[in-house]
């Protein structure tokens, strides 16, 4: 399963148990050479030094092909963040500090400066919320240094900190802008956020449906456009007035813009949900669409950043926003098919 690609064509993801021959029946992270297929001899990112068996999952890659994600010992549920320079002569670096209030961590994104963002949890933060996978705190590892792990909540302005807890950071730009999901303590809601650098201006991106059940999450941010300065555009998902999750695009001027979903495949269509997961500097957005049953109100997938629905099939899409702004963007399939395979599943 592929989970990311950088500007030069390095693809990252995870391979099924035993694909690399020595994975011991565990899933292993990989990174390919630019534009190449997976090489079993050199693309396995392995495990940290001294770890004999375990699993790993790649979730982010930067322009230098450095990879981040999580790893775990065989039989352990304690996931820990990693960084890897993807050289066959080096080992995976464990980003989880030896002494910390956090017991688990995941790395979701890395920028060109090797600043890594993700989420971490420890019992000192309080009990886990049922059904919310990323119920920790948003964290950053400046320069991919495990000793410098920092809780992004620590430097929030007091007026923000009294109402909000940054739960997970899913994306970071080369300029240090960070997006993710935050919890409003007064309202009891999860909303997408944009943080203009550590301790800088905080934006609550809101949701398209404003009631006690509304929710949203931001997965990626990019400075888009040919004009200077470029415009920050954030993508993710929001709970809509139709009572389903739709992908969104956000700018400071426009606010949340509903991306809608793909046309139905049958004369008796299921309602479809959409999730926008990445955006490039051209303003092109990719994501997934799936049939909706009971709309999920929280994260529930271990590997993905996307909430899972009770219906399994999902289809990738791409939206070229340059053609459609300021109107709400539409979507098209990357590989149209009349009947998507029933065993497909959503990727991160």
Short description:
It is built from one helix and 23 strands. By secondary structure, the protein is mostly beta strands. The termini are close together.
Please give a structural write-up.
The chain is mainly β and 348 residues long. The protein has a domain at 207-348. The chain is built from 1 helix and 23 strands. Strands 4-5-6-7 form a 4-stranded antiparallel sheet, with no helix packed on it. Strands 8-9-10-11 form a 4-stranded antiparallel sheet, with no helix packed on it. It has a 4-stranded antiparallel sheet with strand order 12-13-14-15, with no helix packed on it. The longest helix has 4 residues, at 158-161.
Brief descriptors of the model:
348 residues; mainly beta; four-stranded antiparallel beta sheet; 23 strands; disordered C terminus
* Tally of separate helices: 1
The geometry reads as: globular
Q: Largest sheet, described in full? A: 4 strands, antiparallel
- The chain-level structural class is mainly beta
What's the arrangement of strands in the largest beta sheet?
4-5-6-7
What is the terminal-to-terminal distance? 9 Å
Low-confidence stretches: 294-304, 306-312, 320-348
Please provide the ordered H/E string of secondary-structure elements.
Answer: EEEEEEEEEEEHEEEEEEEEEEEE
Number of strands: 23
Radius of gyration: 19 Å
């Amino acid at each position: 399963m592929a989970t990311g690609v950088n500007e030069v064509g390095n693809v990252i993801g995870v391979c099924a148990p035993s694909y690399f021959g020595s994975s011991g029946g565990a899933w292993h992270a990989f990174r390919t050479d630019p534009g190449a297929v997976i090489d079993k001899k050199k693309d396995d990112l392995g495990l940290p030094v001294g770890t004999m068996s375990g699993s790993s999952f790649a979730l982010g890659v930067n322009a230098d092909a450095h990879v981040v994600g999580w790893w775990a010992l065989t039989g352990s549920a304690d996931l820990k963040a990693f960084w890897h320079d993807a050289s066959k002569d080096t080992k995976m670096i464990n980003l989880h500090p030896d002494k910390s209030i956090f017991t688990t961590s995941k790395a979701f994104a890395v920028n060109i400066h090797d600043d890594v963002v993700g989420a971490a949890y420890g019992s000192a933060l309080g009990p886990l919320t049922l059904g919310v996978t990323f119920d920790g705190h948003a964290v950053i590892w400046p320069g991919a240094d495990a000793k410098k792990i920092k809780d992004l909540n620590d430097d929030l302005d007091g007026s923000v900190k009294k109402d909000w807890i940054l739960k997970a950071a899913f994306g970071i730009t080369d300029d240090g802008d960070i997006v993710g999901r935050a919890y409003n303590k007064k309202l009891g809601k999860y909303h997408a956020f944009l943080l203009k650098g550590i301790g800088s201006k905080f934006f609550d991106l809101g949701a398209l449906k404003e009631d006690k059940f509304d929710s949203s999450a931001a997965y990626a941010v990019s400075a888009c456009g040919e004009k200077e300065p470029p415009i920050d555009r954030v993508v993710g998902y929001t709970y809509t007035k139709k009572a389903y999750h739709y992908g969104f695009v956000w700018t400071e001027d426009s606010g949340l813009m509903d991306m809608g979903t793909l046309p139905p495949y049958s004369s008796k269509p299921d309602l479809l949900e959409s999730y926008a997961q990445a955006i490039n500097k051209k303003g092109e957005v990719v994501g997934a669409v799936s049939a909706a049953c009971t709309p999920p109100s929280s994260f529930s997938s271990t590997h993905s950043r996307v909430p899972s629905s009770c219906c399994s099939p999902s289809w990738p899409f791409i939206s070229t926003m340059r053609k459609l702004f300021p109107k709400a963007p539409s979507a098209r399939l990357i590989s149209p098919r009349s009947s998507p395979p029933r065993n497909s599943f959503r990727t991160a």
